[in-house]
Amino acid sequence: MERNLTLLTDLYQLTMMNGYLKQGREKEIAVFDIFFRQNGMITYSLAVGLEQAMAYIENLSFGEEELEYLKSLRLFDDGFLEYLKNFRFTGDISAVPEGTVVFPGEPIFTVKAPIIEAQLVETALLNIINHQTLIASKAAKVCYAAQGDAVMEFGLRRAQGPDAGIYGARAAVIGGCSSTSNVLAGKMFDIPVAGTHAHSWVMNFPDEYTAFMNYALAYPDNILLLVDTYDTLKSGVPNAIRCFDEMVKRGYKPYGIRLDSGDLAYLSKKARKMLDAAGYDYVKICASGDLDERSIASLKSQGAAIDFWGVGTRLITSADMPALGGVYKLCAVVENGKEIPKIKLSDTFAKITNPGIKNVYRIYDRETGEAQADLIYLESEGDYDESKPLTITHPTERWKQTTYYRYTLRKLLVPVMKQGKSVYEMPKLKQIKEYAARELASFSDEHKRLDSPHLFKVDLSDALYELKNTMIEEIRGGENRAKK
Questions:
Q1: Residues 181-193: tens digit of each pLDDT
Q2: Which domains, from first to last, does the chain contain?
């Protein structure tokens, strides 16, 4: 699947690049942040996609095929096309490690590079990071609802294209899924693959029992039967038990049954009683069929006898929130070695950006290790002293303050690229998954619950707040003077 993704960009990125080159400004240094805005449906997210984002940047190059296509558009002169022949990314990047819990407004990926380079990478970075972060976050909520039960990702057939299915499966595993039905994703990322058989298998035999026996004989060490093709309780489960009896006589141990439709709470409890009465109390019950965190939580509350879950469409498409809304915004330029902060204003307060080159401190309780709050601060402030009390203030309602005395701090953004070269050892997927699990475990259930979660504090440092307000006042003042 080696592809040149250099043209995976919006046209206006290229036209702006050409404009900067014509003005002789291509070497000016700019700093951009990726973050996502507040959304009523977002409580927390898992930042995912760094590995693919880095691979994209490291392989940026305009080959003959790309240059010929751009020439055919008749938008760009020979000087720009000649410049692109030797194009390489030479900037610096900081990012939060994959699997980090993040919140709206926090920078999760920062690019510092010549403006012409920083402009090109915007679209593809957002495409990669927005999608995987969205799916990983959805998976985390599904797995939280499952309360420790295994969750299999079953979404490939409903994903919005091959890439969404492949990288969505990767993101879902980081979010907590135990396996995927996607064989290519399994091969590419060393993810456990899982699955049973379809209804068509049962329908292609003279009767259900014959179908079950043929499947069991084909896979005697992994007998998991789909029992709802005709009638779950009158036909499916009794025929499964009959099949299990025969396979036990032959020296095999059945694994489970799968329910894919109907009243899953009712059917699972009835099936559990039938299996137990037949001596199969060890046989597992799997459920699938348009599940998500809400339906799983409801089934759990009803006492459904379900041991593990197959979740497809509503996970791989993040059906209730199909886009994350991450953005890439200029926060500073560097002129003669001096940082000049930049801010975007809006009539909508949530769309006003935080200026300057920033990082995020996560504040932890020193005794329990539980995450307490995040503080977005300017890197120019230097390192904070953990031996001193730390008071943080609400980003808008400044009378709301909290002071921490016994705490530890962790910087969320870490260097991943310097002068176009990777300085970050990319962990294996298993390590990312384990890290994400530790991240989630450091937050209280009150912050993770599905209904009315307790809002996690994300505050601005005093220096950042003052810089932001000063810049707003200066711009507004300039506008007012211009009107007179």
A1: 999 999 999 999 9
A2: 11-135+322-480 (3.20.140.10), 146-316 (3.20.20.70)
